[in-house]
Amino acid sequence: MKKVEMPKMGDTMEEGKILRWIKKEGDPVKKGEMLAEVETDKVNIEIEAFASGTLRKILVSEGNSAPIGAAIALIGAADEPLSENPGGNGATKTPATREPGEHSLGNGQSVPAQVLSSTVAAQTRSPAAPIPGKEGRIFISPIARRIAQENRLDYATLQGTGPNGRIIKIDVEAALSRLQPVVTTMPEAVGVPGAQPVPPQALPLSSTEPFMASIDTGEVVEIPLTAMRRTIARRLSQSMQTAPHFYVTSVIDTDKLAALRQQINEYAATDPSPVKVSFNDLIVKAVARALVRIPQVNVSFAEDRILQKKQVHIGVAVALEQGLIVPVLRNADQRGILDIAREARRLSEAAREGKLRPEDFSGGTFTVSNLGMFDVDSFTAVINPPESAILAVGSITPTPVVVDGQVIVRNRMKVTLSADHRAIDGAMAARFLQEVKRLLEEPFGLIL
Hints:
- There is one protein chain.
- This protein is of the alpha+beta class and 448 residues long.
- The protein folds into 3 domains: 2-76, CATH 2.40.50.100; 106-156 and 170-233, no CATH class; 244-447, Chloramphenicol acetyltransferase-like domain (Chloramphenicol Acetyltransferase, 2-Layer Sandwich).
- The chain has 9 helices and 22 strands.
- The strands form 7 sheets. It has a 6-stranded mixed beta sheet. A 4-stranded antiparallel beta sheet has the order 1-8-6-3, with no helix packed on it. It has a 4-stranded antiparallel beta sheet with strand order 5-4-2-7, with no helix packed on it.
- Strand 21 and strand 22 (406-420) form a beta hairpin.
- Helix 7 packs across helix 9.
- The longest helix has 17 residues, at 337-353.
């Protein structure tokens, strides 16, 4: 019997949520076939079977989550006996599965009996600290510790489901989700005189709870955060709080760039696999070439050192209905313009269809965010950690300018570089933008 484990599909992933099982128990499975669709902190992705046989047992049902490395299913021969305890996967159980010692709230939700007696005290509990008398180090991931401390949850009381009993994010969120319904209905649930309901937004909602949906209170609609939205909130808040941003703006004449784009597209239309080159494809090429010439911008800050990247992997921000994702154009400096255009189209379509692979959205060294198609004149973007810079691109706008003493109309575009001052100084950022401007205003060099 072979275990199917929750795969790690990204550097920041700690858990995955089973959205649906493509195969059902008893179905034959071939190696490489798609087994299930999983929601990660960045994207929904289908996972494949790494062995052939029969799907004997599903250990994590749809709507539940499990930490990376946990068993989510078993594959074996059709007549192979199952062990008595095939689980041990660390999955978060759904509220509908009530264990002995739990009490129902009358709405399909249930909480452990011991939580009922400690909920009120939990609201005034001080930030997490080890239990008196509990010896040894408490193993907890940094993100799990932060969430616990922000919500005044004593993580020393939790049982970790991560490797070697490590407390991970899913453990903390599961504990908070069990507390949340009791707190919001405290007078009715336990009859505590004077107990004050806590607004639902005071405690985070766990994506592992399938019963949670939008709640219309009459004045507002409360929308639970998806895993992607929580990750966006966490990472970009961290970026603004830890990385001292500064901004440098340049105005770029795009008349020659537009002429080159037209020539390239006329040529590409006759190609056996035609593709249409966008302005953004040309901007990505210029940024990649500028990073090769000024590698001091292609860096990450690592507390006691700066990591200068040898590869140029350009992230291109794509807006989805459920949030923002940044697929990565790998080795963009080594690609031709048509190749960049084809890969950018592939990544954008895969992102919208939920078919990105882990390597498609990891490892970026610099990001380009373009809102020009939304008629945005200019904006500043938040750095995508662990990168140290991001280029925000506005729309191309006819603008009156003075040339040789005469006022004429030229097509111009504003770009703004956001840079992490811990790793990049102002003069270096200005030099980088000068190089990008030069390459885009004299774009013939992009095809050499």
